[in-house]
Amino acid sequence: MNKDKQFLFISIWVTFSLILFNYPLFIKSISSSKFASNKIKLAARKAEFKGFQKIEAQFWNSIKEVDLDGVRKNIKIAQIENNNYYYLTTDNKSLVNNVQKMELLVAASQTKPKQPLTRFLFVGDSIIYNLAVGFQNRIKKTLYQVDAINVDFKVSSGLNRIDYYDWYSRTSELIDKYNPQAMVVIFGANDDQDILDKNGEYKIQLTPEWQKAYQERVERYAKLVEKSSVQKVYWVGHPISSLSRYNKFFPIFNKIYQKVAESHSKIEFLDCWDTFAINDQFNPIVANKSGKKRQVRALDGVHFTQHGANIIADVVIEKMIKDQILQPKIKPESSDELISTKGF
Question: Is 122 helix (H, G, I), strand (E, B) or coil?
Fold first, then answer.
């Protein structure tokens, strides 16, 4: 009997201590008790304990409802960003951050594909003409949707001798005239000569000062097209040449074109150096996508044969397809000539 009284006394004391320790929580619990009368429940609900309410609010804010089913479904989608996974943790802040990251990834995965571009402008020295012809022939053969292909070239021109031909003003005129959505550009075949820098100082070819001056010319052209209405510019790099002289210049030009392109969002450099090479050596006979083998460069070591131009055109087209710029036609259209030329 004494043991029963002792146990009862201890139980009452523990209960009383717990109530005193967290009296607000005890009162709050009464309001939802099924054993309490309505008057007692009402009184408990009206009791205001600001400290408790603050703690309670913090508690519930920390465990706000999270759609875990949705999160689980989206975990696979999280892999689309460089194959990085975002793991959920018990830390609420990390949980929220990871859910937000997943929401962004889901939104990115649901973004509509880029709108196809249908108006093209090819610009550059005389090399560009055969490339534009090859591009048109390939487009017609594969039935991709194209509304216009315009090409404008100037023999013996480039970005070096702007005193001979000003490609800056000419390009602005062409963009205003044709309103192209995409451009394909080739320069450099005639730029293998000494240059005057922006201050009018003479720079000898292949020197560091010469490279700097030429890069300034390329940068100026890049800024021009970057600020224009053109949506995409493909700057085609030079393939390896059959002549050692051009193989001194072309790698320098390609490096400059690539460097400038990397700092302009609209411009993409297409590296074609190995397209005419085997083990980094010039290969005069190259097979196209159909397996047909023919010569790819003219005897001057600069110009493409039409076969070579078609191979480079395939490089351009494949990149455009990858970028979702080209879209197949729904129905074949007439084979009327699309290309418009303005040569000198």
Answer: strand
Q: Do 137 and 156 sit in the same domain of this protein?
A: yes
Full domain range(s) for residue 10: 1-64
Residue in 167, 192, 323 with CA at minimum distance from that of residue 256: 192
Total domains, the chain: 3
Q: Which residues contact 147 (CB under 8 A, 6 or more apart)?
A: 118, 119, 338
Residue 254: strand, helix, or coil: helix
Query: How far apart are the two ends of the chain, measured CA to CA in Å?
Result: 120
Q: Which residue, 115, 40, 54, is CA-closest to 325?
A: 115
Express each pLDDT in 238-258 by its tens digit.
999 999 999 999 999 999 999
- From residue 265, alpha-carbon distances to 128, 225, 255, 321 in Å are 23, 11, 17, 18
Type of residue numbered 320? M
In a shared domain, residues 189 and 283: yes
Query: Residue 324: left (phi > 0), alpha (psi -120 to 50), or beta?
Result: left
Mutual angle of helices 23-30 and 2-21, in 10-degree steps: 90
Q: For residue 33, what are the contacts with CB-CB under 8 A and spacing of at least 6?
A: 41
Query: Are residues 191 and 175 both part of a single domain?
Result: yes
Which residues is 269 bridged to in the sheet?
235
Q: For residues 282 and 46, give the distance between their C-alpha atoms in angstroms, rounded to a whole number.
A: 90
Q: Is the pTM of this model over 0.90?
A: no
Instruction: Find, among 94, 92, 95, the residue nearest to 71 by Cα.
Output: 95
Amino acid residing at 337: E
pLDDT tens digits, one per residue of 261-276 = 999 999 999 999 999 9
Are 70 and 51 part of one and the same domain? no
Predicted local confidence at residue 325, as pLDDT: 93
Same-domain check for residues 96 and 33: no
Residue 272's nearest CA partner among 262, 263, 282, 264 is 282
Q: Among the residues of 143-269, which ranges form H helices?
A: 167-178, 208-226, 246-262
pLDDT band at residue 339 under the 50/70/90 scheme: low
